[in-house]
Specification:
Chains A, B: Pfam families: HxlR (PF01638). 2 copies of one chain form a homodimer. Chain A is mainly alpha-helical. Chain A is 60% helix and 10% strand. Chain A has a single domain, classed as Arc Repressor Mutant, subunit A (Orthogonal Bundle). Chain A has 7 helices and 3 strands, in the order H-H-H-E-H-H-E-E-H-H. The radius of gyration of chain A is 17 Å and the shape is globular. The termini of chain A are far apart. The mean pLDDT of chain A is 93. Chains A and B meet through helix 1, helix 2, helix 3, helix 6 and helix 7 of A and helix 1, helix 2, helix 3, helix 6 and helix 7 of B. Chain A binds a DNA duplex (30 and 30 nucleotides) through helix 1, helix 4 and helix 5.
DNA sequence: TTATGTACATACAATAAAGTGCGTACAAAT
DNA sequence: ATTTGTACGCACTTTATTGTATGTACATAA
């Protein structure tokens, strides 16, 4: 749980307060959220499908990040109420509109060889 | 210091390995780096100027993030070798080219009222 | 002569994020 | 009768990030 009054939390809050970029990052930052969104860009996924399509993500992380994305309105969940359980995740209109932004970053990263730069510095022999 | 072999670190590494978006985020993620880059978009700044222009950033954070950005090739530093010290920070071509991406995010965030959404969820009365 | 400003460095503490290892309930397949 | 699969929940530990409190060296201003 977060400490509401830590300098840490307050700093983050003030930054998001007047910057769309910081606000965006606050909601989709972290290791997994963008990957989840990116995976959902073309079609909806069931929970386990999503898990299989994202290497190394644990169930805890997937559940946690998904529910946060749902709360924040980027992803929507359809629960079929069946047993065994079946759920389906897809992007909301907000999430879909964000794909254009991601594609922009993607293209920029490719034309600037960002993977190469990152690997050179942070290692991946 | 980072633990090279933690699952944590390995996961991050594998994600950046083949995704320009993850690679980009790895280099400019965190609380302060984008703000620093954003501040430098129009002109170069001296160290203390930058500090004054970014509310609440501590000297440790500013120094640390700046040197990381310099290492990664987003920002360049000019040290005048004077006493009292004088240094100047500005964007490299890579950093400058990234401003277009940030503007894109900025515009998207504005038209989608991201600040409003973020504040509604994470509070800022 | 005491204070102020510059651009840092560093030990340490606090906070946040991510990962591990368990358990649930029910159903169908082996 | 035991295993496998689905979609989670939760207590706990490990890592990572951020912040706090100092100190440095020299110079000019009050």
């Amino acid at each position: 749980m977060r400490k509401q009054n830590s300098t840490n939390a307050l700093n983050e809050q003030q930054l998001t307060f007047n910057c769309p970029i910081a606000s965006t990052l606050k909601m989709v930052g972290g290791r997994w959220k963008l990957i989840i969104i990116w995976n959902l860009r073309e079609k909806s996924f069931r929970y386990k499908e999503l898990q299989r399509s994202i290497p190394n993500i644990t169930e805890k992380m997937l559940t946690q990040q998904l529910s946060s994305l749902v709360e924040d309105g980027w992803v929507q969940k359809k629960d079929y109420g069946e047993i065994p359980p079946r759920t389906e995740y897809s992007l909301t209109p907000l999430g879909k509109s964000f794909i254009a932004v991601l594609e922009h970053i993607y293209d920029w990263g490719k034309s600037n060889n960002i993977i190469g730069i990152a690997n050179a510095r942070y290692g991946n022999e």
